[in-house]
Amino acid sequence: MLKNKLNGLRRSPKGLVVILFAGLLVVGTGYTAVNAAVNTSPQAASHSAAQINYGKKLFLSNCASCHGKNAEGTANGPTLIGVGEASVDFQVSTGRMPGASSGPQMQVKPVQFTNDEIAAMAAFVGSLATGPAIPGAEYTSGNGDIQKGGELFRVNCAMCHNAAGKGGALTEGKYAPELMHSSAKTIAEAMILGPQNMPVFNDANITPQEKNDIITYLQYLQTHSSAGGDELGGLGPVTEGLLAWLGLLGLIIAITIWLGAKSN
Ligand code: HEC
Ligand code: HEC
Predict the structure, then answer these.
(1) What is the per-residue pLDDT for 55?
(2) Which atom belonging to ligand 1 lies closest to the Cα atom of 88?
């Protein structure tokens, strides 16, 4: 009985439209539900209105000239709507912002704001639109697996930052900075944000646990000097070979001079 009715519905053109809409509805709501579940990354540990207002005041006097009064962007700087608190924290706490001089890359300068001021400006920008939050302790505790972190670093980061984290040149006058002074938070933020030429390493790509492993590895490099003597910039066999070669050449010249001096 019901089956016959359904079959009839399927054959009539009106029925087809109904089925089509029902299908779209299911797919649409299903997609929204799944998407909402995926997008629950933490954002804006709620900030007080006073903090956001304070951040806005600081922003207007220090940043708006380039980023616009409402962070909408100007000819001198990009919009900050949706960049997230992590981006503001990264840029200002490493001294890249407020920007100065238009070289190929923002220079790292002495930090110009206190932690409270940075947090307030981050809260203000975060209040405009959602974006990546400042990474929490699950990324930055530094108690991860050094060995695994080293492997991940060599595969994902070393081509730009050098295997020993000493940094390296990129094209068009840009460079990947050395990482010997980067804090755990800065490292986590850089991976989440991908500033400039650096790729974004999202949590599906490198999980929070693996990010913590990488940070643990870098912290190990930061606190342990090389066991094998001078690293010669961490550049590997090329500089080491060159040094050996120059040393040997010097020795040969010295012996030649000594022999020549003797025969006189
Ligand atoms: C002299 C102009 C100038 C000033 C002043 C300035 N910025 Fe910027 N800002 C820039 C430029 C240019 C870029 C893009 C740089 C880049 O691509 O690396 C930028 C990038 C940024 C970004 C990264 C945006 C992204 O896409 O992730 C953030 C966040 C930021 N600025 C925050 C600030 C804050 C906060 C202040 C005030 C304390 C500030 N800036 C002051 C010029 C400026
Ligand atoms: C394609 C090259 C490239 C790769 C790959 C890359 N980076 Fe970067 N990284 C950069 C560049 C360029 C900057 C500087 C961005 C700027 O100044 O705005 C940077 C900046 C950073 C900083 C900020 C340093 C500081 O103290 O200011 C950290 C930390 C960092 N990268 C870590 C990593 C880690 C960890 C990986 C691997 C998971 C990685 N990077 C992979 C190019 C790269």
Answers:
(1) 95
(2) 29
